[in-house]
Write a structure and sequence with these properties.
globular; two-stranded antiparallel ribbon; 4 strands
Length: about 325
């Protein structure tokens, strides 16, 4: 019981401890504040937006007992497709070009998710293997579409969406991400679709006996994961006015780590959207904090790796205790 309580609050404790750690470091080393600085807060939230969007999609999949390793390059694929389509419509009204680009990109990026779902639910290929294969396919398609280079976009409305701050405080990408978080939380916690997702992850056989169409639901879950990767690709392109096939590659580890840091179980059946939010903020604070205190970037990988190991240990300890120590 005590471990369950610890497992539910430890992401918050870790977020608090990391915030205090970098605040103390910044004050001692640079006589400045890390937390009480508007630019830093905006930067941390912006850092967290893309991996959080990826993490939200994969939260659905992990709760159902799966994994999606293709999301990083699905994001990059979406970014270059969006940039290419929007650029090719440069002669159109910017709003029309943007609308067509968004709709076409989201439809196209659903295809890798559909294939993932078909491989896993229809052909019973293990999720790790199936999505790893799609990782390579999406990576290759992204570089082919982009012809191996970054694809620039000259669209004033897209530029405004990527750089404007509401009331000078909240970046639009952060606002969009917050809205998506609320919608995803509602779907997962308040709808039958969310209940089915937890049921499949908790006990697949029981879900089948209860009449849940597990194959169809699994297919939808991987399409949702790809859709969130596509949305992250759109946000990336808006921020940088360009699409890059490798845009999501460094975010794969961060996004999956955010889900487990947030309390999801490696064995399925548990997890929360707000937990993933906390996990994404923990990683963003670590990454931005190390940059802020002038530590070499490769220490970020070490720090995130350690946090993942701690999350695994907490999850496995809880599982052993719930199984009577076995």
């Amino acid at each position: 019981m005590k471990l369950d309580v610890i497992r539910s609050i430890w992401p918050w404790l870790f977020l608090l401890s990391m915030s205090i750690f970098f605040e103390v470091w910044a004050r001692l080393a640079y006589d400045t504040s890390f937390l009480f600085n508007l630019f830093n807060i905006q930067s941390i939230l912006t850092f967290a937006a893309a991996p959080l969007l990826l993490g939200i999609g994969v939260t659905f999949v992990i709760i159902a007992g799966g994994i999606d390793l293709s999301i990083g390059f699905a994001m990059g694929f979406a970014a270059v497709v969006f940039a290419t389509i929007t650029s090719s419509l440069g002669g159109q009204d910017p709003l029309v070009a943007l609308f067509i680009g968004v709709i076409a990109t989201m439809l196209i990026v659903m295809v890798p998710g559909m294939v993932n779902g078909w491989l896993i639910a229809g052909l019973h290929i293990p999720p790790f293997i199936g999505t790893l294969g799609m990782y390579g396919v999406a990576r290759g398609l992204g570089f082919i579409v982009a012809d191996g280079v970054t694809v620039p976009v000259n669209n004033p409305i897209l530029f405004q969406l990527g750089t404007t701050k509401i009331f000078g405080l909240i970046p639009i990408p952060v606002l969009i991400t917050a809205i998506v978080v609320l919608i995803a939380h509602f779907v997962l916690s308040q709808t039958r679709f969310g209940q089915y997702t937890y049921a499949i992850g908790g006990n697949r056989e029981a879900a089948l006996r209860a009449g849940i169409n597990v194959k169809r639901h699994t297919l939808l879950l991987y399409m949702i994961s790809a859709g969130f990767a596509g949305l992250a690709g759109l946000i990336y392109t808006a921020r940088f006015s360009a699409g890059a096939a490798q845009a999501g590659e460094p975010l794969l580890l961060d996004s999956i780590a955010a889900v487990f840091i947030g309390g999801a179980s490696f064995f399925g059946g548990s997890g929360r959207i707000f937990g993933t939010v906390i996990g994404a903020l923990v990683i963003a604070i670590i990454q931005f904090g190390l940059v802020f205190v002038d530590v070499e970037p490769f220490w970020q990988f070490l720090a995130v790796g350690i946090v993942i190991i701690v999350a695994v240990l907490v999850d496995q300890s809880r599982t052993r205790i719930s199984n009577g120590g076995k």
